[in-house]
Amino acid sequence: MAYYMALPYTLVIKEITDETGHYYFGSYLELDGCQSHGDTMAELVESIKEAKEDWLSVKLEFGDPIPEPVSGPDERYSGKFNLRLPKSLHRQLSETADLEGVSLNQYILFRLSQ
Q1: Taking 80 as the threshold, does the pLDDT of residue 6 lie above it?
Q2: Which end of the chain is less congested by CB atoms within 10 angstroms, N or C?
Q3: CA torsion 28→30→32→36, rounded to 10°?
Q4: Are the beta carbons of 50 and 34 closer than 8 angstroms?
Q5: Is the distance from CB of 28 to CB of 34 less than 8 angstroms?
Q6: Among 5, 4, 11, 66, residue whose Cα is nearest residue 44
Q7: What whole-number distance in Å separates Cα of residue 84 and Cα of residue 111?
Q8: Burial of residue 56, with CB atoms counted within 10 A of its CB: 0-12 exposed, 13-18 middle, 19 or more buried
Q9: Secondary structure (H, E, C), the chain
């Protein structure tokens, strides 16, 4: 238990104001269903810690797999993704990149960054 409690899981916290009032909601990105809330940030921190202990305890008791945390914020992003697009758009982008004297990749990156 101590091993998993010490791992740097990604905690996502949202401040919420709705018809029930104002509170903080927290969940661990890697621990599906491990979530809690509190009226203050301090209450949330305490309750999410308890929820994590309970969540891990059940997984360990039943021998269920427990995911490891994401290594770091940028570890999940390789800088690459595949995109399917119509042939006509592919042609238009390629021809424009040629006219600009840059690669298709450089041209698309430039357009996305605008």
Answers
A1: yes
A2: C
A3: -10
A4: no
A5: yes
A6: 11
A7: 17
A8: buried
A9: CHHHHHCCCCEEEEEEEECCEEEEEEEECCCCCCEEEECCHHHHHHHHHHHHHHHHHHHHHHCCCCCCCCCCCCCCCCCCCCCCCCHHHHHHHHHHHHHHCCCHHHHHHHHHHC
Q: What's the whole-number mean pLDDT along residues 103-108?
A: 88
> Rounded to the nearest 10 degrees, what angle do helices 104-113 and 87-100 cross at?
100
Tell me the pLDDT tens digit for each residue of 14-43: 999 999 999 999 999 999 999 999 999 999
Closest CA to 9 of 90, 100, 72: 72
Answer whether 103's CB lies under 8 Å from 92's CB: no
Average pLDDT, the chain: 90
Q: Does the pLDDT at position 71 exceed 90?
A: no
